[in-house]
Amino acid sequence: MDPELTIVIPLYNEVENVDPLHAELSAALDGIGRSYEVIVVDDGSRDGSFECLKAVHAADPRWRIIRFRRNFGQTAGFAAGFSAARGAVVITSDADLQNDPRDIPRLLAKMDEGFDIVSGWRVHRKEPFFSRRLPSLLANRMISGATGVVLHDYGCSLKAYRSEVVKTLRLYGELHRFIPAVASWMGVTVAEVPVNDRARRFGQSKYGITRTFKVLLDLITVRFMLGYSTRPLHIFGGLGLISGGLGLLAGLYLTIVKLVLGQNIGNRPLLLLAALLIILGVQMISMGLVAEMVMRTYHEAQNKPIYVIRETLE
Ligand code: UDP
Ligand code: MG
After folding, report:
1. pTM of the prediction?
2. Number of Cβ atoms within 10 Å of the Cβ of 35
3. What residue's CA is closest to ligand 1, atom 18?
C-alpha cells in the first residue's frame, strides 16, 4: 500500500541534525494520522551523516534513504526524492531543522482546499538582514514579477505539492527554488501559508552570497522557458526583425543621400550602424530557427508534452 504523504529531504553534511530531525518529524507526522514515508537523499555527505541515517532507517522503515555517490546539489536531491516518492502529496523540507515540522498540518489543510502547490512563507526570518533577507526579498519580487507566480518566499523549502506536479517536473542546475514558477506552465493553483523559521543550531549553511547571482541567471532561463520555449523564433525573430528593419531603413536613407543628393556617405557613422543592425537581424533570425529545431528535439527526446489535461468528460 502506498503511503498518503511523502516527505522529501535533501541532506548534505548534517550529522548532528539527523537524530533530532527524526524525532521532530516523527512527533509531528504521527499527530496527523495519515500514512507517510520520509525520503532522505544523502547528497554525498562526508561527515558520517549516512551512517546515522542508516541507523534511523533500521529503526524506522518508513524512512527511506537514497545515497548519492557524490555531492550533486540540493536540486538533484529533490529530483531523486520526487522520482522515488509514492505518496499522493509530496512535502519538501530542509534537513537542518530550520523548517518546523509542526507547520506540516497547516500546509496539508491548505492542500485539502484543492490547491496543487502550497508554499511555506517564513514571515519572521531568523537570518541576517543584509546577506540573506535583503537579497531574498529582491529575488522574490523579481521572480514573482517575471513569472507571474507571486510568492513571498520562493526560498522556503517547506512546501507541499500534488505528486503529479512534481512527477512531471524536469529540474536542472539549481532550479529547485523556482519549482512553483516552473510548474506554472501546466496550470497549477498555488497558495501560501505562514510558517515558522528557526535559526540553525548545528552545522553551517552550504550557500554564500554568490547564490544571488545564480538566482538572477536562473530567472532568465525560467522566464524564457515559460514564455517562449515552444516558440523561440517569436522572441529571437522579433528582435531580429526590429534590428534588421531599422538597419534597412538607415541603409535606405543613406542610399538616397548618396544617389539623389550625391553626397559622400563613406565617413558616416550611420553606415556602420546600418550594417551592424542588418547583420544582427540576420543573426537573430537564424538563432531563432536553430532554437526552434533544438526545442523540437528537446520536447520529442523526453516525450515532454506541450499541454497538460486536467480532465476529460466523455
Ligand atoms: N543541501 C544538499 N546539498 C547541497 C547543499 C545543501 O542536500 O549541495 C541541503 C542541506 O543539507 C539542507 C538544505 O539542502 O538540508 C538547505 O541547505 P542550507 O541549510 O545550507 O541552505 P540555507 O538554509 O542556508 O539557505
Ligand atoms: Mg538552512
Report:
1. 0.91
2. 13
3. 205
